[in-house]
Amino acid sequence: MRVRFGVLGPLRADGGRAPGPAKHRTLLAALLLSAPEQVPVERLMSVVWDGRPPASAESVLRVYVSALRKQVDGIRTVPGGYLIEVTPDDVDCHRFERLVAAARQARAAGQVAEAADGFRAALGLWRGQALADIESSSLRRAHAVPLEELRLTALEERVELDLRLGRGAEVIGELRALVGAHPLRERAWVRLIEALHQAGRRSEALGAYQDARRTLVEELGLEPGAELTAAQQRVLSGTGPRPPVGDVRRADAVSDELPPDVSDFTGRRQALDWIRRTAGEQAQAAPVHLVLHGPPGCGKSALAVHAATGIDLPDGRLYAALGARPAGAVLEDLLRSLGCPDGAVPPALDDRVRLYRTMTARRRLLVVLDDAADEAQVRPLLPTGPGSLTLVTSRSSLPGLEAARTYELGVLDEDEAVAMLAGVAGHERVRAEPEAARRIVRLCDHLPLALRIAGSRLVRKPGWTLDHLAGRLGDERRRLDELSAGDLAVRGSLALGYRGLPDPERRLLRELGAWSAPDFASWVLGRDLEPLAEAGLLQSRGLDEAGQERYGWHDLTRIYAAERLSEEDGGPGGVLAVRAEAILERTRQARAALLPAEPGTGRTEVHRPEHDAPAGGPPGEPALESGSAGGPPGEPAPESGSAGGPPWDPALETGSAGDPALETGWLRQEARWLSAERRFLVATVDDFHRAGLYEAAWRLAFYLTPLFELGAHHDDWHATTAIGLDAARAAGHRRGEALLLRGLADLHRAEGRTEAAAAALRAAQPLAEGLELARITLRLGLVQALQARPRPGATQPSPQAAQAEQAFVRALRAFEEAGDRRGRADALRALGALRQDDELLRESLAAYQELGDPRGEAEALLDLARMHLAACRLSQARDCVERRLGLNRRLGDRLPEAVALLVLAEVARAEGALGAAVSAAGEALETFTRYGDRRNAAQALQLVRAALECDDADGAVDALVSAMGEFDGLGGQEGKAEVVRLVQEARRRRGQRI
Fold first, then answer.
1. Spatial separation of the C-alpha atoms in residues 514 and 529, rounded to whole Å
2. Which of 188, 478, 688, 857 could form a disulfide with 693 if both were Cys (CB 3.0 to 4.6 A apart)?
3. Which residues contact 504 (CB under 8 A, 6 or more apart)?
4. Is residue 16 scored above 60 in pLDDT?
5. What's the average model confidence in pLDDT over 537-564?
6. Rounded Cα–Cα distance for residues 437 and 210 (Å)
7. Please, what's the b/e burial string for 400-429 (b: 16 or more CB within 10 A of its CB; e: otherwise)?
8. DSSP code of 893?
9. Cα gap 743→745, rounded to integer Å
């Protein structure tokens, strides 16, 4: 039976994939390329092992030949080598060479049409790059390179014949792809110019010449050769080939100029539905103009063409690639497409616009305007006929385009992105490595262009696994290099947008490349970021909780910006150094609102920015406050956080300066600002450290600790503390190291890890002195107080209780001697909570009120409430906890509010108001689950369980059901199972059916 083989693409046998591992395929390809001639053993060993055969190569080669013979017939051993018995026409490369030779003979005989068809048949044998899956570079050099050159030459010769046959308009797309893949090949540019000229697209032909000249000058430093210059002159003089008589389009002919649809188009169902729905709303009444906008590479053009392919309007479909082309040049092409005779296109823009509007006024056209730069470029190109539809793609939303409707196209979701990768690379390969496929999708930023390139690379490399490609993409320094295939390149797409920006905006994008954060607000660089959003390089994320416009970008854009910064400005260090002081000062000001303090002066009042300077020391000097963001001194500080919601508006508050409502309104706004900027500031700590700005890195890490405590952001707390400690040590700053060790101890204490907290504080003691040493002593006492809690079965008091009391007394004495009122208030509260001393706690409460510190006041109130509850003074306990709740709610501190609700639930339970207890505990449970606070959520569940045991099934069900929607945030299956069990039990008692 006759077997056909293919090497013009991946190696194939009878239309299927060639058998065997890589070296077997190389061996078979070497035999096929020389068929039917024999190939010497030495040459086979050289190509199979790529010029480096091992000592055992000859014997191993015999094994390979034996294995190959079991799958491929006709391999014979001959003296000195091997051959494969096939006819030349059974191997596509030999058949290709024969067809090219025959086509050239037909051309020489004057048979132009037959010659063109012969070249077309020869070129149709190609399925990709020659020897695409053969790993032998020596074999590719010897055979693939000459074959590829013959392919290009045959293509140029066939195009030349097509032009002689008047087929210029048909080959334009093919020639554009050719010059894109081989921009230094002058003859390809000549054929493109001739084709455009023959199609009547004179301005595009001249533009192609300018593109060719610019490429040659920039890449080679050479001016165009004689053939290319002659082609330009023919366009300028109006000489040269024209379509045959009778081939000129009639004015009433129907045009369909859409590029081919993408065969593996994936997803975008919502966008396609929007186009069809919006286009149909005014289909009979007026022309409809739709703008698809989004970042580079998101697939706007592919979506527009795909959507347009499914829309059939009676008078045709026009297409124009805009880019930087002037509207007048595009109009010339559109008018010719509509049938305007040669020479009848007016020279002036206004006249062209009037003619275009006249020719479209009575037609229902679909016009696709791809890659629009701005509104001025688009307006003259809009058809006026009722029922016409214009689809515009642009990186900008073109906000000034009258009567246009816009749709922002983002990246694909994960399932769509995986499906697209599978459509390009092959469904079997993606199914075989689903996790690697998802890694590739994430590293490609879900961007269609990047996914298409990644899939194309996998097609060209059948020996690669998806995991191998994911590993290559994982290196940020090489990712943009990896995302390049032929004339497709993510870097090139981003570069178009970058080069189209004015110089100030280009500088701004480069400066943003200094940061690794996923989003940011304009204050970071003190510049308006909207121009970059209009260019599609940033995306608006809307207003954050502090009322700021936030902008984000795709990771590939960030990498490109960082690349440009490195190449044009020397890297991120200079930008970060310039902005470090402003970032530190703004963050320190917000921190001072959470923990007011002025080191060493004893003057620790809160200062509102519009009335006084920010609290704290001199610029760049960390405020050495002594307190924790919250929590009773005798136990771990509760994880507390700032609420979401609209930004604070002073006009909504009542009172004048000094009014508690105004003060807490400002404090709430500062907490919201910190919360909104958390991801940016956390990333900036690492950015500073990587740039060698160690002082800025450790100070920013220190300033952020109260935010992490208020919001229970323990992962961020751990990460920034580790970086900050490393930076402080690199800077040789002992006090900075001590401050961060103290913060690390607070973190361990909040997590209940008392031994780790004590170890961090002991490591900090030798680094500190004066008041900072007193603050460390106070923290160590808090840890010892935790360790002093009675354990089940214990009969003797723990020695840690006495140690804790001694630590509190020493710290209190040091603060009083130095006049540090904030430190004194903290020490009084710690000592009062440990001793359960009403007088000490009230004294600390008064101290916080004098300082203007509502968060400290709230914690003192909760300690008093707990003390009154333990002594069964229920009315006093309720009064304290309700006052505490009022402060928490004015400040927007949701987790401290939930902690107070637990105490309120205990008070209500002691009062016998079981329904109120369950309600408060259920509300607290919902907050704890939303913030991932497992320990306090368990306590809330215990209260609900107690209510259920007392037969308050109705209240228990309501509380549990309200929390179930948020309970997955805890990530603990055991806790979730307990909630489900309690709901089932409560419903059983209530007689409901589960």
1. 15
2. 688
3. none
4. no
5. 88
6. 42
7. ebeebebbebebbeeebbbbbbbbbbeeeb
8. B
9. 5
Distance CA 410, CA 530 (A): 17
What DSSP string runs through 844-864?
HHHHHHHHT-HHHHHHHHHHH
Distance CA 15, CA 5 (A): 8
Tokens of 731: 């800077």
> CA 137 to CA 147: how far, in whole Å?
14
Give the pLDDT confidence of 437-486 residue by residue, as tens digits: 999 999 998 988 889 899 988 988 888 999 999 999 988 888 888 887 76
Inter-CA distances, 215 with 178, 488, 614, 752, Å? 14, 17, 57, 66
Contact 979, 963 (CB under 8 A): yes
DSSP state of 142: I
Indicate if the pLDDT at residue 22 is higher than 90: no
Q: Strand locations in 435-536, DSSP E?
A: 484-485, 488-489, 519-521
Tokens coding 124 = 């149709």
289 strand-pairing partners: 390, 404
Spatial contact of 473 and 451, defined as CB atoms under 8 Å apart: no
Helix spans in 570-713 (H) = 573-594, 660-676, 678-690, 694-703, 705-711
Element (H, E) at 977: helix 973-990
Token pair 């610029």 is found at 619
Phi-psi region of 694 (alpha: psi -120 to 50; beta: other; left: phi over 0): alpha
Rounded CA-CA distance 464/104 in Å is 39
* Total Cβ atoms within 10 A of residue 288: 22
Place of tokens 């007016």: 346
The predicted-structure confidence for 900-937, as pLDDT tens digits, reads as follows: 998 998 898 888 887 788 788 878 887 887 777 777 77
- CA atoms of 781 and 458, how far apart (whole Å): 61
Determine how β-strand 16-17 pairs with β-strand 519-521: unpaired
What is the pLDDT, as a whole number, of residue 56?
A: 86
In angstroms, what CA-CA distances link 601 with 616, 617, 623? 10, 10, 11
Task: For 484-555, list the strands marked E by DSSP.
Answer: 484-485, 488-489, 519-521, 539-543, 549-552
E runs forming strands in 194-333: 255-256, 288-293, 316-321
Could you give the CA distance from residue 465 to residue 475 in angstroms, rounded to a whole number?
17
What whole-number distance in Å separates Cα of residue 8 and Cα of residue 728? 61
pLDDT grade for 646, boundaries at 50, 70 and 90? very low
* Structure token pair of residue 150: 């013959």
**Mean pLDDT of the residues in the chain:** 81
Helical H segments across 88-201, by residue range:
92-108, 112-123, 137-139, 145-164, 168-181, 186-198
Sign of CA dihedral 725, 729, 730, 736: positive
Closest CA to 952 of 926, 989, 908: 989
Long-range contacts at 361-364 (CB < 8 A, ≥ 24 apart):
361/385, 363/315, 363/316, 363/388, 364/313, 364/314, 364/315, 364/388
* In the predicted structure, residue 86 carries a pLDDT above the cut 50: yes
Are 538 and 513 in contact by the 8 Å Cβ rule? The answer is no
Return the structure tokens found at 311: 């829309």
Distance CA(455)–CA(459), nearest Å, equals: 6
Would you state the torsion angle of the CA atoms of residues 36, 41, 47, 52, taken in this order, to the nearest 10 degrees? Answer: 180
Nearest to 340 by CA among 167, 166, 170, 200: 200
Query: Alpha helix locations (H) across 751-870?
Result: 754-764, 770-787, 799-818, 821-835, 838-851, 854-870
Tokens 């709610």 sit on residue = 889
pLDDT in tens, 370-415: 988 889 999 999 998 888 899 999 988 888 888 888 999 888 888 8
Q: Which amino acid is at 673?
A: W
